[in-house]
Amino acid sequence: MSLGRAPGVDIEVTEEIIEQSTRRSSSHCMIAEAIRSSFPLAKAVSVDIQTIRFTDPSKRERYIYLTPRVAQTSLVEFDQGKKPEPFIFRLRSGQTVSCDRTHSRNQKNPSKPQMRVPKGGTSNSTPEIVGGQPPPRVGGRREFGLRSFER
Question: What does the CA dihedral 121, 123, 126, 131 come to, rounded to 10 degrees?
């Protein structure tokens, strides 16, 4: 099975999304809800301070992105009970992994990750990773850690 590139997705976190979201929840926070709004095919959305992950079931691919700085700072504010201002960010240069069980963490010889420079990119562009193992996850609640994080 050939994996595709992780799509670039523009995410808009609106005032309405912020109001309706759940604090300290990786699957129902303001960013997760904004991803569902911007990318309706997204399933199993998970957001933490380090990564943003979601699955496209039609392609049987899971996309993993590093959380952009603007999203990190707003996420920490949100989890601390402060109301962040609405903002926009772009998910880009993500890792693509297969959703098939044969390519999961239990596989003895996972596919070797391939590094690809995004289309139109230069030698200074952040490479996309296709295949390989996803980075580890640390649970679904963001209740602990980074308590002293301030802008």
Answer: 90
- pLDDT tens digits in sequence order for the chain, 151 residues long: 578 888 899 999 999 999 999 888 888 889 999 999 999 999 999 998 899 999 999 999 999 999 999 999 999 999 888 999 999 999 998 989 988 754 444 444 455 665 555 566 565 556 666 767 766 665 554 444 444 455 4
Contact 75, 43 (CB under 8 A): no
In the chain, domain spans: 9-130
Q: How far is CA 38 from CA 33, 61, 71, 105, in A?
A: 9, 17, 15, 29
pTM exceeding the 0.85 threshold for the entire prediction: no
Rounded-to-integer distance, Cα 75 and Cα 9, Å:
18
Task: Report in angstroms the alpha-carbon separations of 133 from 37, 124, 139.
Answer: 27, 24, 17
